């Protein structure tokens, strides 16, 4: 409830300010707000998988950004070979879901509770994967071509300006996925088992539940979301070396701001960071990157567990 209220306030403030700017024949502000919301939607798609693995399961996976970029590259290769953007989306998701499953079985299962080892191993993996991707796909920039029916411009009612149809669909997709994840974790039996396993996996195992299987499912879904975000993000923006580090850092900030293990918190954090980044880029580009870190520092000082994180 608090999250929905906060998002509504942010949106209404932005919309109101946009109307104020429109009176001066300047539509740049409202376009920037929309860019911030859609960028926040992309950040949420990446961070939602990260919050499942890092925030909920307490597994430190600093190779999550590499899963994003690898999913983008693999999805682009599949889409380029078949001419189907939707096939690229599916392959990006499935390939990274399998990669996440392998990570859980081969790495994290053997290092439960060893945060430092998990951190060092996944940093090493991210470096190796970055070099392998650079070797395979080179240093050039790639971009997906979405289907024509979602690659147009929509004229927004009342504001009298056009905006990318694909970016609006990206925002709606993030909303649907966010609601689906929340319902999955809070309203299903499997979601209950996941939360119980995080709090006391020994007790859950004693009740006859295959804890490792449950955690494998979570890891696969989290990594698959990273691959899915790679394809849809590569369509909205582009794919290039270095994007793995960018989106890993964004995911960390979103999880810290929103709260560990909270899907709703990740949504709120992603919107705040997306808006701060875009508004800063347009109106104070020299210091724009500082604003996201100021938000993170402010949250850590005022509410260390994150805006919607559990206290403890």
Automatic annotation (TrEMBL):
A Gene Ontology cellular-component term: plasma membrane
Protein name, UniProt field: Amino acid/amide ABC transporter membrane protein 1, HAAT family
UniProt main location, coarse: membrane
Annotated GO biological process: amino acid transport
Annotated membrane topology: Multi-pass membrane protein
Matches recorded under InterPro entries: ABC_transp_permease (IPR001851), BCAA_transport_permease (IPR052157)
Protein family membership: Belongs to the binding-protein-dependent transport system permease family. LivHM subfamily.
Segments passing through the bilayer: 28-54, 61-79, 85-108, 120-138, 166-185, 213-241, 247-273, 280-302
Protein keywords: Amino-acid transport, Cell membrane, Membrane, Transmembrane, Transmembrane helix, Transport
One Gene Ontology term of the molecular function aspect: transmembrane transporter activity
Cellular compartments annotated: Cell membrane
